[in-house]
Amino acid sequence: MPKTPTVHFEAASTLAVVVSSNEPLLFLSDDQKVIAASASFCRAFEVDPATVPGKRLSELGNGEWAMPKLASLLKATVSGSAQIEAYEIDFKRPKQKTRNLVVNARTLDDGDTDHIRLLLAVTDVTDARAEARLKDDLIRDKAILLQEVQHRVANSLQIIASVLMQSARRVQSEEARGHLHNAHHRVMSIAALQKQLSTSNSGTVELRTYLTQLCQSLGASMIADPNRLSIQVTVDNSAVEADVSVSLGLIVTELVINALKHAFPDERTGTIVIDYRSSGNDWALSVTDNGIGIPAGNDAPKAGLGTGIVEALAKNLKGGIQVSDAGPGTAVKISHQENAGVRTDSSTVA
């Protein structure tokens, strides 16, 4: 007898919480009869609150809650052999849109040890699921559009390169022909960059593969005799954002083209080495050749288009440029240090 008032008090408290809840809740007996339903549940699923108490869950509304799998899970929850957590159901009613619901259920100890009661919480995720599907569709459409743009860009670059080569064959001026050949090499290097980036499935680019394939493309288009000249790439396991990789790739392109044009005259043999290393936010890219080096004094070449391109790209990456004697040859190093100022030494990249 002393226990009875406590039982009634605990049950009344649970009923009050359920009825006043802003979330769709059901308070069920162990045989799945409804003890109480929150007002929000009745509003959400168009159930008359006055008809709810005493009905079985399967009898609510027009029978749309008669779900054998849900009933079986609730029975198993009462026995302690299962627990309903984030169980998804399709809630169907005649002439209405199917709704996606997530159901959670747990047993409650309300002081009555003779009967197990269940608290059933229902969350409508229809809109959330629709938004997720829309987002997935947009991502898929964006990927398809990006692939189409990449194909168009690649085709356009090939056309431009072809036009430049045709023009180079027609002009009489050696100087003009040289400029057209330089433009052709730059277009082809950009095409190689675009090809490498188009194969990246994420927002970052693994530099070792990227720079290796880029230099292979440059070598194939500019080195007639691989036994005389070669390009070597040594890169650590760094990965960078796609826009950073573009800048690094263009810098490498300009410096390699410059070395191939000027460092090995008179059929000299030699090697160009590209090296990249990073530690935290600090990084260093170097392009070194073992050619004739940069002439000094009056023989020093004037800074050309390549110089401006490399300096602009290095500045964009917040990197400094250092040009030094590699003994033999020339070393150009672009580096960034988090706690150091940007320094640019005058260089002569054609």
UniProtKB/TrEMBL annotation:
Coiled coil: none
EC number(s) per entry: 2.7.13.3
Alphabetized Gene3D superfamilies for the sequence: Histidine kinase-like ATPase, C-terminal domain (3.30.565.10), PAS domain (3.30.450.20)
EC main group: transferase
Taxonomic path: Bacteria, Pseudomonadati, Pseudomonadota, Alphaproteobacteria, Hyphomicrobiales
SUPFAM superfamilies in the cross-refs: ATPase domain of HSP90 chaperone/DNA topoisomerase II/histidine kinase, PYP-like sensor domain (PAS domain)
A Pfam family annotated for this UniProt entry: HATPase_c
Name used for this protein in its record: histidine kinase
